[in-house]
């Protein structure tokens, strides 16, 4: 742990971004486009040097950390935790630290403990935006425009929490999020297993059909929609899936059961049953979309 104690002041509006991949790079670009000072740290030096040309003000060194009002942890789950544990004593009193990790229980439980005894606050966050591509080269200032931001507020009094969230919204204003949704870490991980993680597993498994190599000239929107997230960062998604293994396993069990029902009806050439299954799925889709 660093010996330096946390400072008591920061430069208002100054931001620090830890990790310049797709998410971190997009935060950095959004802050810079709004005229904010943004300092960054990245494991690969060449990416940081590229970002310094037109995006970041400078490197997020130990002596700069304490001058930031907002710090964004945009790495993999364990790397975000490791950085925060190592630099906790350097963060300014009154600063806010958020993350962008796609799971929340392991992040919030650990980072909340790291924050104990310090004057800064950790707020778990998950921006609901992205692409099938990764890396700083694919980041953009408008990545989060209109997108939802899921926020896991820390345990504190209602008035104190309200003030914190309003301040966080102001700090994140350059990102132009469309909404802020409050949730617990448990609720987040339960829902995200369905809305994001299951979709990635299904898409990734779908392209393993031998027919995938024969699809050219036979595919259109359905194929593109279902395979968009088959291309993924295997290292990152392995960590995310295993950090939420219980919820993801439940969702996989549910879809396997449903697929088996379709297969049985098709194998048995049971038209009424197949029609019933298809109509049920159509009806549920319309209900959940409010149509």
Automatic annotation (TrEMBL):
Domain Prephenate/arogenate dehydrogenase residue range list: 13-291
Sorted UniProt keywords: Oxidoreductase
Cited InterPro entries: 6-PGluconate_DH-like_C_sf (IPR008927), NAD(P)-bd_dom_sf (IPR036291), PDH_C (IPR046825), PDH_N (IPR046826), Preph/Arog_dehydrog (IPR050812), Prephen_DH (IPR003099)
Domain of life of the organism encoding this protein: Bacteria
One Pfam family in the UniProt entry: PDH_C
Keyword Oxidoreductase: yes
Family, similarity comment: Belongs to the prephenate/arogenate dehydrogenase family.
Protein name per Swiss-Prot or TrEMBL: Prephenate dehydrogenase/arogenate dehydrogenase family protein
Source organism (scientific name): Paratractidigestivibacter faecalis
